[in-house]
Amino acid sequence: MIKVQTGQIIEYYSNTCRVVATDGIFKCRIQGRMDLVVGDFVKIKPTQDSGDCDAMITERLDRNTALYKSKDRKTKAIAANITHLGILVTVNPKTSLEFIDKWIVIALKSGIQPFIIFNKIDMLENGAYIVLKDLYTDLEVSSFAISAKYQTNLNELISYLANQTSIFVGNSGSGKSTLTSALTGTEILSRELSNNQGVHTTSVSTLYQVANNMKVIDSPGVRDIGIEHLNHAEILAGFKEINDFASKCVFPKCGHQEDDGCAVMQALKHSHIKESRYNNFINLNAAVRS
User: Fold this and answer.
1) What CATH number is given to the structural domain containing 98?
2) Per-residue pLDDT tens for 66-125?
3) How many folded domains does the chain comprise?
4) Domain check: are 87 and 169 in the same one?
5) Do 45 and 107 reside in the same domain of the chain?
6) 3, 104, 118, 127: which sits with the fewest CB atoms below 10 Å from its CB?
7) Residue 126: which domain range?
8) What average pLDDT does this structure show over 173-179?
9) Side-chain half-sphere CA neighbours of 68 within 13 A
């Protein structure tokens, strides 16, 4: 092992990390107090006095992107250097349109490319998701129709995620763990407890690197993400079509509801903005205001 090298955190514990670097994978202690999460790039150096650890993390490099969760208006990073965020959409359990739009807002605010995965297509009638697919395609959000369980149509998704670092979000039962297992070749159990309190996995976040330089971050922390740390302008930026019309409103601080001269309301009236998108925009704004 060279004296100092750069690596990426693939697992993070309370005071140690596993880091993949040029010379292999190392268990590392952390020098001082650093805000570290899975996906962070760090500098490490060998150490002789850290117990069962091979190296010491001495520095965290700048993050390109990060996902944050918020509580009581305070934010905490849960994963870093993500390029793509896949939103799993299923009929059973039913994924709400507000769930989709919330995650599009979060991804775009974080500088991450959102995309949609229609999972469990084996349970759908042909074309059952086409209207929804067309809605988000018009908004320049890519989508894929797959069955993670039967590994149907995965090749196009794998090609899309080549050389990227992705993370998946979805409701309990949407197939997130099944999809991650299929893409990484590693059996990942659902972190949700069954009704009979069956076996469940640890809450450790993990980064998997597989063929075609595809990286997948599996993190239980994404279940708890809210939008309380966002402001109204950041939410508006996540609704591209509404944002475009908002710039044409007569008043710069238009509430985009019943205001005179509101271009957004006019666009809604003439179906240039979908009602579901407008309603979700209002609901997410209200959540930030509360």
Assistant:
1) 3.40.50.300
2) 999 887 778 899 999 999 999 999 998 999 999 999 999 999 999 999 999 999 998 887
3) 3
4) yes
5) no
6) 3
7) 66-224
8) 95
9) 18
